[in-house]
Amino acid sequence: MAKTPPHIEGEVLAMIAAGYSLAAVSSQFGLSYHTVRGIQKRAGIKSGEIKKQVILKYQNALKDSLASDFIRDKASALLMDDLALSSKLRSKLHVLLDELPDSPRDTKEAVLIARSLSAIATSLKLSNDTLRASFKLGEEPEVNEDLPELIVREMLEKEIEEIKAEQKSIVSA
Known about the structure:
One of its GO terms (molecular function) is DNA binding. One of its GO terms (biological process) is regulation of DNA-templated transcription. By secondary structure, the chain is mainly alpha-helical. The chain has two domains: 6-67, no CATH class; 71-134. The protein is built from seven helices and no strands. It starts with 5 loop residues before the first helix and ends with a helix. The mean pLDDT is 79.
């Protein structure tokens, strides 16, 4: 088996640090998933160890690729698939949960129930993670840093009289 050249390993590490998935990186360089994962593990990628401009290059490339209509269509299809699978998983989990007895007859049944509940909890976590990741696709929404100012003060006597008069006119109408 041929060793991956150092310049390719550097590019692989930069793409991983820029946010590409291991599957995307392996596809980009024609390497197996396990090879890419091995490169990542050997390097132990940590922030600041890779040149910022290389990371920036691949982050920009990732953003550009997300702008492609083909990629958007593919991402949309995958999102719909993930949502459908999550929904189906949740409905099956509800059925399974309803079938579990509330009080086990013996220790063996208690262990089986505990395992079932653990599997259900793991499946729900997977479903939630899928949904959470699915809704993070695309651009981050703009965050408005300026929050409205709430001023609390005591009302003036004149303002109180105006409100009372307005309420009387509404009631008498």
